[in-house]
Design goal:
about 500 residues, six-stranded mixed sheet, five-stranded mixed sheet, 14 helices, elongated
């Protein structure tokens, strides 16, 4: 009953293309992209990272490669002398994988390129990352792939370093332009902020729109100083910009660098002939007028002094503080060059007092007040110890800012620094008007202080100080350095204060 009809033929099985057929099809009508050069013609020394959870952080953007992250010895460029690369050499950083293809040779994944230092805890400082900068990574791969070996290898490495630094500096300039810097009322700002701009060990402040102060704290910056200076001159908007080179000897020694700049803390690069001279020349007394939030400051970037002669990290905080100062009595403790005091006077404060332990700082404050046309009746600056002044002062204020120098440069001195911060805040809080209350802005530029206990440690210190002062405080706002002091998301909150 059921078997009388015609039998149907089974459908043929579908045939899928082989991997070789897929590969040939992808190549048809399409030019193959240049591949990363093989080891036998590699022109850049290679650093292999261990494949673990930490190596993923480098692919994600972490710029500082520690010694224990590296797999064995650095592989030298075969075209060179087969010797280990010297300090400051450009290296190619890859993650080491097991033999996945069955070829007998381990596979690697390219991370990027950086500078090598066998004497530092930071064995490699990454300057270009293929994962966070894919387009620029492709450009560098093409440069390497197109290198035939006919050209001088050292010349090629210098060219590659120039391209990497130029790319980073151009990105830093574009970032500041998007922030509105420079502007009609601000020509002084941080142009490069180390890891925040992908240039670990280097900071650059632009002062008055005509001077760029470079602060070097890494060996590679000293070794490639000429490349950095030439690249800066090429990207800075003012053609006549003077570049001042400053170093941090203690950090350079820590980074394993023992060059001549260890002994010459500051140097000035002459734009005309690129000669390097010490800042003890006559130009060291030259004053550059800097503008920030419409306030003018006399700065001396050519002289040896506190950093670059101006603290532009407080720019936004000065402006926010001053906009609340109209008609109020204001006290600026540790006033340095008068930034908070002068901004408060500009915004209509009834009476402003600035105090600093340094007489040279007070002289600078008085000069800056005159430069902006503020009379002695509105702004007054006093030289004296901050603790003694706060304990002896009988005057009361509506607004107080306390901005001491870095009291905790490292976690090892955190306990003693905490006691100092506690005492300074306790005495300052007591000077707020008892009847009406007031506003208190307290600051710490010590990352060890502000990052402890998830960022609550400094706040707890201030809270304890208020209890001893028998005053109630309410937290209104927590702010950080001005946005031109960029931060690296991959290593955040390191460097945050």
């Amino acid at each position: 009953l059921f078997g009388g009809g015609p039998r149907t033929q089974p459908k043929p099985k579908r045939r899928y293309p082989t991997n070789e057929e897929k590969r040939l099809k992808q190549q048809q009508g399409k030019q193959q992209q240049p591949k990363l050069p093989k080891l036998e013609r590699l022109v850049i020394p290679r650093v292999l990272l261990k494949r673990n959870r930490q190596s993923k952080t480098f692919r994600d953007g972490n710029q500082l490669v520690y010694t224990n992250s590296i797999e064995g010895d650095v592989l030298p460029a075969v075209s060179a002398t087969n010797a280990a690369p010297p300090i400051g050499s450009l290296v190619q950083v890859e993650v080491n994988y097991a033999d996945r293809g069955g070829t007998g040779t381990p596979d690697t994944q390219l991370v990027g390129w950086g500078v090598y230092n066998p004497n530092s805890m930071y064995r490699v400082r990454l300057l270009a990352n293929c994962h966070t900068q894919p387009d620029f990574g492709k450009e560098l791969k093409r440069m390497i792939a197109e290198f035939t070996g006919d050209d001088d290898n050292e010349t090629f490495l210098v060219t590659a370093m120039e391209r990497i630094i130029s790319n980073r500096l151009q990105h830093a300039v574009s970032t500041r332009q998007m922030m509105g810097l420079p502007s009609s009322d601000t020509d002084t700002y941080r142009l490069v902020n180390g890891e925040g701009d992908g240039i670990s060990g280097l900071a650059v402040d632009v002062i008055g729109g005509t001077v760029a102060v470079v602060m070097s704290s890494a060996a590679w910056c000293e070794i490639h100083k000429d490349v950095i200076v030439d690249s800066l001159k090429a990207i800075l908007p003012a053609a006549d910009t003077t570049i001042v080179w400053k170093t941090t000897p203690s950090r350079l020694k820590q980074d394993g660098y023992m060059g001549d700049s260890i002994h010459n803390e500051d140097s000035v690069v002459d734009d005309e002939d690129d000669a390097t001279t010490t800042s003890s020349s006559s130009s060291s007394s030259t004053s550059i007028v800097a503008k920030e939030n419409g306030i003018l400051y006399n700065t001396f970037p050519f002289a040896i002094g506190q950093k670059t002669g101006v603290y532009c990290d407080q720019r936004d905080n000065r402006d926010a503080f001053a906009r609340l100062a109209e008609g109020k009595r204001v006290l600026d403790l540790c006033c340095y060059h008068g930034g908070f005091a002068l901004n408060a006077a500009k915004h209509g404060a009834a009476h402003v007092v600035g105090v600093d332990s340094s007489q040279s700082a007070i002289d600078a404050c008085i000069s800056n007040a005159q430069l902006n046309g503020f009379s002695d009746g509105v702004v007054r600056f006093l030289q004296g110890d901050i603790s003694s002044y706060s304990q002896d002062c009988e005057e009361r204020f509506d607004m107080i800012v306390l901005d001491p120098p870095k009291l905790a440069p490292s976690a090892s001195v955190l306990a003693s620094a905490t006691r100092k911060y506690h005492a300074l805040n306790r005495d300052a809080i007591k000077l707020i008007d008892e009847e009406k209350g007031g506003l208190f802005l307290t600051c710490s530029c010590s990352a060890a202080m502000t990052q402890e206990d998830g960022g609550n440690y400094f706040l707890q210190t201030v809270q304890k100080a208020s209890l001893v002062a028998k005053r109630q405080i309410t937290l209104l706002r927590v702010s950080n350095a001005a946005p031109c002091h960029t931060q690296d998301p991959a290593s955040y909150p390191a460097g945050k204060y």
